[in-house]
UniProtKB/TrEMBL annotation:
It holds the Pfam family Redoxin. InterPro entries: Redoxin (IPR013740), Thioredoxin-like_sf (IPR036249), Thioredoxin_CS (IPR017937), Thioredoxin_domain (IPR013766), Thioredoxin_ResA/DsbE_sf (IPR050553). This is Redoxin family protein. One of its GO terms (molecular function) is oxidoreductase activity. Keywords: Cytochrome c-type biogenesis, Disulfide bond, Redox-active center, Signal, Signal-anchor, Transmembrane. Its main location: other. Residues 1-20 form the signal peptide. Residues 46-192 form the Thioredoxin domain. It is found in: Cell envelope. One of its GO terms (biological process) is cytochrome complex assembly. GO terms for cellular component: cell envelope. PROSITE patterns: PROKAR_LIPOPROTEIN, THIOREDOXIN_1, THIOREDOXIN_2.
Length: 192
């Protein structure tokens, strides 16, 4: 075997390994430009919870938005995009629970990601009847704030921040209304 042939073979094997790693496996893989979640739910004991990032920016219509405005409430943060099939599938569940918990000290907020034109997201929210605000996050900077606690590794990702401002739970992939409601109840009970 020549040295040049060996070098090409090693490079080809390396490239194949890299491509295989990028493709995902099992329930987690890439589909239509996003990395799907595995449906896992991570709950954090109150003593182990880390401070949530304060998310600041503009809503879909360009108005200032900050999670600091919801201090003292349980905050549900959903990373989403109207182009993402699981995001579209879970939208009715998120809206249902947001309405159900509006008078129970819970604030929902979306983080719109990888969407250049917020008009698409505005139209999507109107069609689905979603009234809670969403941040515009074209560059993906807001979800990076969760890297010190429970980072996002999929779209959609939903975080629950307790009333003391700490990350209490994370769901990777779409969530049902009953599961989300149960998680919110658990977080509120464990924080009281």
């Amino acid at each position: 075997m020549t040295h040049r042939f060996r070098a090409r073979t090693v490079a080809a094997i390396g490239a194949l390994a890299l491509l295989a790693a990028c493709g995902g496996s099992g329930n987690r893989g890439t589909t239509d430009g996003y990395v799907s979640g595995d449906g896992s739910i991570t709950r954090v004991d109150p003593a182990d919870r880390k401070d949530a990032p304060v998310l600041e920016g503009e809503d879909l219509e360009g108005k200032p938005l900050s999670t600091a405005d919801f201090a003292g409430k349980t905050i549900v943060v959903n990373l989403w995009g109207p182009w993402c099939p699981p995001c579209r599938a879970e939208a009715p569940a998120l809206d249902e629970v947001a309405e159900q918990y509006a008078d129970k000290g819970v604030q929902f907020v979306g983080v719109l990601t990888k969407t250049r034109d917020p008009a698409t997201a505005i139209a999507f929210n109107r069609r689905k009847g979603i009234t809670y605000p969403s941040f515009k996050d074209q560059g993906g900077q807001l979800d990076l704030g969760f890297n010190d606690s429970l980072p996002s590794i999929a779209i959609p990702t939903t975080w629950i921040i307790d009333s003391k401002g700490r990350v209490a739970a994370r769901i990777l992939d779409k969530v049902s209304a009953s599961t989300l409601a149960d998680l919110i109840d658990d977080v509120q009970k464990s924080t009281a």
